[in-house]
């Protein structure tokens, strides 16, 4: 919020105060500061359902759809079930609605198609009918305020996926490129410890995309402690811990 206020031009005190109030209203309308920051990172196109994050994922889901259905034991013509956690809107996968059945949830939804729900409190599925072929955590994990809870969220996500299901993780680029405790290789170690295999990744100017597949055999959960892997004075402290 301080950074936003600093960007206000040097006008009269009254104009500054009015501008601050207007910005605060915009932030509140988007569901609070975290939602505002997510929306800013994703950009206007993401808010209107045409964002790059969804497009990047769909390009891989298209050729993998049959494989995902077969591994899950679902019908060959059934739509892929997708859970989008922290959704800004309910339209990201609207153009693919014939073959992707998306469910959108968020702590503080700002779109009628997004259901209010805390993913941490969502019960672990006991039946395959309640599981998903794909689960999206787009700019969500970085807003969890504790490294251990970030690990819990990723482990919890695994339980919602069908056999060989996919987890789509999006993080701000500094989380993997400028952290004392995280690099791309370290993130791969974490996903392996949780029971995933990274199959695709991509870096943009502001974001890192990671597509993980749930591993079914030869896997045993491991712990990952906080460890300095990229020391430096101008780095952040983003970290994920797995217990």
UniProtKB/TrEMBL annotation:
Family indicated by similarity: Belongs to the BMT2 family.
Q: Which InterPro entries did the record assign? A: Bmt2/SAMTOR, SAM-dependent_MTases_sf
Species of the source: Rhizoclosmatium globosum
Concerning HAMAP family, the annotation shows: BMT2
Intracellular or extracellular location(s): Nucleus, Nucleolus
Q: Taking the first listed entry, what is the main subcellular location of this protein, grouped into a coarse class?
A: nucleus
Supply the EC number(s). Answer: 2.1.1.-
The molecule here is called 25S rRNA adenine-N(1) methyltransferase
Broad enzyme group: transferase
Q: Which UniProt keywords apply?
A: Coiled coil, Methyltransferase, Nucleus, S-adenosyl-L-methionine, Transferase
**Which residues take part in binding S-adenosyl-L-methionine?**
86, 106
Stretches assigned to coiled coil: 6-33
Molecular-function annotations in GO = rRNA (adenine) methyltransferase activity
Function in brief: S-adenosyl-L-methionine-dependent methyltransferase that specifically methylates the N(1) position of an adenine present in helix 65 in 25S rRNA.
Identify the SUPFAM superfamilies for this entry: S-adenosyl-L-methionine-dependent methyltransferases (SSF53335)
PANTHER family reported in the protein's UniProt record? 25S RRNA (ADENINE(2142)-N(1))-METHYLTRANSFERASE, S-ADENOSYLMETHIONINE SENSOR UPSTREAM OF MTORC1-RELATED
**One Gene Ontology CC term in the entry:** nucleolus
